[in-house]
From TrEMBL:
Keywords: Carboxypeptidase, Hydrolase, Metal-binding, Metalloprotease, Protease, Zinc. This is tubulin-glutamate carboxypeptidase. The keyword Protease applies. The active site is at E932. It comes from Oryctolagus cuniculus (Rabbit).
Length: 1066
């Protein structure tokens, strides 16, 4: 059957090319039009695959060469060519080779006084010009001159033809050679005049497509430097700025305003960042490495790519070159690489697994299972008085989904409150020996520590809060200051779980950094308590991004009120911030802080520049700074102008985080989401070629937001996400270790290695203590499978630390599920793989300027010690037959914030050196995954429409652990006694666990959700992201279809043509 259909179509196409009978040709054209007017595009692609494009082009050439040309054949033929050409990406090249390009251009010239014929010629030229190289050829043959004759000043007539002409001209001007020709012949000024004329007369917005077409011509011609210069010289910036501002709220001309903004952004003079160098402001001497030279100054060539090479912008990158990033070589995927170190070197990691050989001779069985040991006294995990209420989205869908959410919420309550039911919170007790092995965990502080504040070299930054200004200064220099601070700490109105300011200060003295920190950040010292409920995602006001872009452009056009006053700079250490002026005061020289420069643009507007990662000139994304000196009830705008990522969740409801010192002193010590009018878009600052992957002309991105601070004369901290510092981790581990019940919990903390900066990288082991020192109990203890969990390889991903914090606290808690987990597994946890990067305020790299998650293939102890020894530990476990298990798929069914549709299980060549690929390939760990967390929020389940807070992130850590437990219950190796205990303990929660186990076994019928929430407006991430003429091919298709079925088309066209000829209009 398929062969008969193919042969039938081929017969039609062959007859179309060879027939001299006019009626036969018309009949075939009608048949083809009917076939292609229904169904999907598959029919058109099938026609193209059988040589349909070539057949139509040959018929066009043959028909056009008759004298006179038969337009009754040519018009339906042009419609078919346009329809097919929209789907044939090589139609332009085919038309060039078969001489149809010249033929169509000649017919267009002959049809200047016949609008209907000219319209059809223009449709064909438009699809031919979709290929830039073909458009360049049309420009050489005089197509632009022809089109400018077709585009008159404002008129009511021939709107379809004029619109088509503007769109074809815009397509031609995508060619750089055509754009240069247009500039040389003064077309930029002509186009501006035409736009101004149509704009001033079109009060009813009836000619928006024509006005947009003219703007697209200007947009394309200003992609080259000479085009921008001509545009600026003709006053284009001022003209379009005025037009855009006056029509910003007019939805009827939205396409016109969008095109205006694209031109304005494109024509803003590009410049280098207002920094002395793009490299990091701090120097980080790394042993054995050469300090990289700062990148040279930007050259003219780097500001744009203005070469003569014609890039085929319409070609699909997949067609231009095969995507070779996916690893498809089965041999490489299955081959197990050899060890990257001598095998005997793995024996050093035996000392990190003493649980496999310890005899626990000091353990003595007691009735009820209690054990007396030489372990430390314990404290139970503090529990909240009541679980946080869950906010469910308004649209709950069917009752079935509502039921699932109810059961899921029940399971969440079980995780959150199980510890509270099992044991109350108590105070800390003095610690004895760290574990039953008789070896104290290194780095512990005595539990009753009160760090002598006089010895602390760091203080708290000067603030304007009346209560603190008397004694807070940039350094704790005297005993009086220490006494005042001690008095203040004693008066803290709120208890923060797992936080001790004195212990934190003692730990901070031990944290090493290449940055000369001058203070401790107040949120780290005072502590953070999660708000009582999650905050909703910010509702984006439609058009706000355009308003902000126009405000930026106004600086260039109307600079009279622009201050450009540097108020903070790491590059100018002698710069003094005037405390008496109206300027805000900034600071960032504290742990994890990142702000390099602050420039006051206007009275309440500031441009901020963040620091590159150490030993690098890239990765500007993470920010964390202090700001003070604000006025109450005043809105301040902050614009971080050197962000690198081309996309951001800040455009989808995410807000920065804010910590107010005055709020903390009033008993609300919380990081909260703050900021309005949040936008993220491309700006005019040019990136260095070396920092942009070798590409020229790439620009930075601006994150802009406005904040009205809760109090005047406050000291606030603003951050990309909830900060979690290295010192906070070390403090948390100390407090966590003291809180565990040593008779039940085996908790061992040691140093995996020291970083390049000299900071210890902690390794934590958690499992259940053996019931006794009997051989059976010890055997069961030593044969528990290992779970290895690592986090924070990228310093800017502070959300990972909050998830890890939740996992750690859950694992040592008294929750029934936590006890079962400890009895089922031995957990080896490295909570922070990149301490140096975290301390320094990096976004992605370590002290050496390397992305540590790309170093797992062949790390070295000298340059990547944490990755080297983490891999060594995993290799050791694998060598002794204790291959770890990592992460279960079951999270997709269990955790409300986990989405399976966002997961990727591909192995890309570019990620061959990442942890998940190396651990899977070299150690045979089948379940080796990277779990990523959103900075923003969730679009499904109970948290739909909410931004993640620290509570939700910590809960994800607990859910991760629970997922491991369920996976173990489903495995065939699960101990029957453990499974019976689990059923007895966990099934008491309203059948929640049974429900989830059933869902995990049978799968969910719920359709996967989209990964990114909708935005209130089309997000213009970059200058050229707006709709192109080629993006409106669907509209052209509609016009062609309407023309084919318009019964009055011919009569109307003849009437218009006659009027044209009578008035002598060309």
């Amino acid at each position: 059957m398929a062969e008969r259909e193919a042969s039938g179509l081929q017969v039609l196409l062959h007859t179309l090319q060879s027939s001299c009978d006019r009626e036969s040709v018309l009949t075939i054209l009608r048949v083809l039009a009917d076939l292609l007017s229904v169904g999907t595009d598959r029919r058109i692609h099938y026609l193209i695959s059988k040589g349909g494009s070539e057949a139509l082009l040959r018929t066009l050439v043959d028909t056009a060469r008759t004298d006179p040309p038969d337009y009754e054949v040519l018009l339906p033929l042009f419609r078919l060519l346009a329809k097919v050409g929209l789907r044939d990406k090589t139609i332009g090249q085919k038309a060039l080779e078969l001489e149809a390009l010249d033929v169509t251009l000649i017919l267009a010239r002959k049809s200047l006084s016949h609008s209907q014929r000219l319209l059809h010629c223009l449709w064909a030229l438009r699809v031919f010009a979709a290929r830039v190289t073909t458009g360049a050829m049309l420009g050489i043959n005089g197509a632009m001159e022809l089109l400018l004759k077709v585009i008159p000043p404002y008129t009511h007539r021939h709107s379809r033809t004029i619109r088509a002409a503007t769109e074809v001209l815009a397509m031609l001007l995508r060619s750089k050679s055509n754009s240069r020709r247009a500039v040389n012949q003064g077309y930029v000024t002509s186009l501006l005049r035409l736009h101004q004329d149509w704009h001033s007369h079109d009060a009813a917005a009836a000619c928006v497509p024509i006005r947009r077409g003219l703007l697209l011509c200007l947009r394309n011609v200003t992609t080259i430097r000479s085009g921008r210069e001509a545009f600026l010289a003709a006053g284009g910036m001022e003209l379009l700025f005025s037009h855009a501002q006056s029509h910003l709220e007019d939805s009827s001309v939205e396409p016109v305003v969008s095109a205006m903004l694209q031109i304005l952004r494109q024509c803003c003079p590009r410049s280098a960042l207002p920094l002395a160098t793009a490299s990091c402001a701090y120097a980080a001497p790394v042993p054995g490495s050469v300090t990289p030279a700062p990148p040279p100054a930007l050259t003219d060539e780097e500001f744009e790519d203005d070469s003569d090479e014609e890039l085929d912008k319409d070609s699909d990158p997949e067609d231009m070159k095969e995507d070779d990033d996916l690893e498809t070589d089965v041999d490489k995927l299955t081959a197990k690489p050899g060890l990257d170190r001598p095998e005997e070197e793995l024996l050093q990691y035996e000392a990190m697994c003493p649980e496999l050989s310890c005899g626990f001779e000091e353990l003595e069985s007691q009735s009820g299972g209690d054990l007396n040991s030489g372990c430390a006294n314990h404290q139970h995990i503090p529990a909240a008085a009541s679980p946080k209420p869950l906010r469910v989205g308004q649209d709950q869908g069917s009752q079935e989904r509502a039921g699932e959410d109810t059961i899921q919420a029940s399971l969440l309550r079980m995780v959150k409150t199980a510890g509270a039911r099992s044991r109350p919170a108590t105070t800390l007790h003095p610690a004895g020996r760290a574990n039953g092995l008789g070896t104290a965990s290194p780095g512990n502080e005595s539990p009753g520590i009160q760090a002598p504040l006089e010895e602390d070299a760091r203080g708290l930054g000067a603030v304007s809060c009346p209560r603190l200004s008397a004694f807070l200064c940039t350094a704790a220099r005297c005993g009086d200051t220490a006494a005042e601070l001690e008095e203040l700490l004693k008066s803290r109105p709120t208890h923060v779980a797992f936080h001790d300011p004195h212990l934190f200060m003692a730990k901070a003295k031990r944290t090493r950094s290449v940055v000369d920190f001058e203070m401790l950040a107040f949120p780290d010292l005072w502590g953070h308590r999660p708000p009582p409920s999650a905050q909703s995602m910010l509702e984006r006001k439609c058009g706000i991004q355009r308003i902000k872009i126009l405000e930026d452009i106004r600086r260039l056009i109307q600079p009279s009120d622009v201050l450009n006053k540097v108020v903070f700079s790491l590059d100018e250490p002698g710069l003094l911030q005037d405390t008496d002026s109206n300027s805000l005061r900034f600071f960032s020289k504290f742990e994890s802080g990142n702000l390099r420069k602050a420039i006051q643009v206007r009275e309440c507007e500031y441009d901020l520049l963040i620091n590159a990662d150490l030993s690098s000139s890239q990765h500007q994304q993470w920010f964390y700074f202090q700001v003070s000196g604000m006025r109450a009830a005043t809105q301040y705008r902050f614009s971080i102008v050197n962000c690198e990522k081309p996309n951001s969740q800040f455009n989808y409801g995410m807000q920065p985080t804010l910590y107010s010192m005055k709020e903390a002193l009033l008993g609300r010590p919380s990081w909260v989401r703050a900021g309005s009018e949040v936008c993220y878009y491309r700006n005019h600052y040019v990136r260095h070629v070396a920092g942009a992957g070798g590409a020229r002309g790439r620009c930075y991105y601006t994150l802009t937001f406005s904040i009205t601070f809760p109090h005047g004369e406050d000291v606030c901290y603003v951050a990309y996400h909830y900060p979690y510092t290295y010192t906070a981790l070390m403090t948390h581990l100390d407090l966590l270790e003291r809180s565990v019940d040593r008779r039940q919990v085996y908790f061992r903390r040691e140093v995996l290695c020291h970083t390049l900066g000299g900071n210890p990288c902690p390794l934590v082991t958690i499992t259940a203590m053996p019931a006794s020192n009997s051989p059976d109990h010890l055997e069961q203890f030593r044969h528990r499978p290992y779970q290895v969990i690592t986090a924070r390889v990228h310093p800017g991903e502070s959300n990972a630390s909050w998830v890890m914090k939740g996992a750690l606290e859950f694992l040592v808690s008294g929750a029934p599920a936590a006890r079962l987990l400890r009895e089922a597994f031995i957990f080896k946890i490295i909570p922070m793989l990149n301490p140096d990067g975290v301390v320094s305020g990096n976004h992605r790299c370590s002290l050496s300027g390397e992305d540590l998650n790309r170093q797992w293939l062949s790390p070295t102890a000298q340059r990547q010690p944490t990755v080297y020894h983490a891999k060594g530990l995993l290799l050791y476990l694998s060598s002794i037959g204790r291959r770890p298990v990592i992460l279960p798929k079951i999270l997709a069914k269990l955790a409300p914030a986990f989405t399976m549709s966002s997961c990727s299980f591909l192995v890309e060549k570019s990620r061959a050196s990442t942890a998940r690929v190396v651990v899977w390939r070299e150690m045979g760990v089948s379940r080796s995954y990277t779990m990523e967390s959103s900075y923003c929020g969730c679009n499904q389940g109970p948290y739909q429409g909410l931004q993640f807070g620290t509570s939700e992130l910590e809960e994800m850590g607990a859910m991760f652990c629970l997922g491991l437990l369920i996976l173990e219950f489903k495995s065939t190796s699960c101990h029957h006694q453990l499974l019976a205990r689990a059923a007895a303990v966990l099934n008491t929660e309203d059948g929640a666990l049974d429900f989830h186990l059933q869902r995990c076994s049978t799968g969910s019928s719920t359709a996967e959700l989209e990964d990114e929430p909708p935005c209130a407006e089309e997000v213009e991430y970059s200058v050229g992201s707006g709709a192109d003429p080629d993006a409106s091919f669907a509209e052209l298709d509609r016009q062609i279809q309407a023309c084919a079925f318009d019964a009055d088309e011919g009569a109307q066209a003849e009437q218009e043509d006659a009027e044209w000829r009578r008035k002598g209009i060309p």
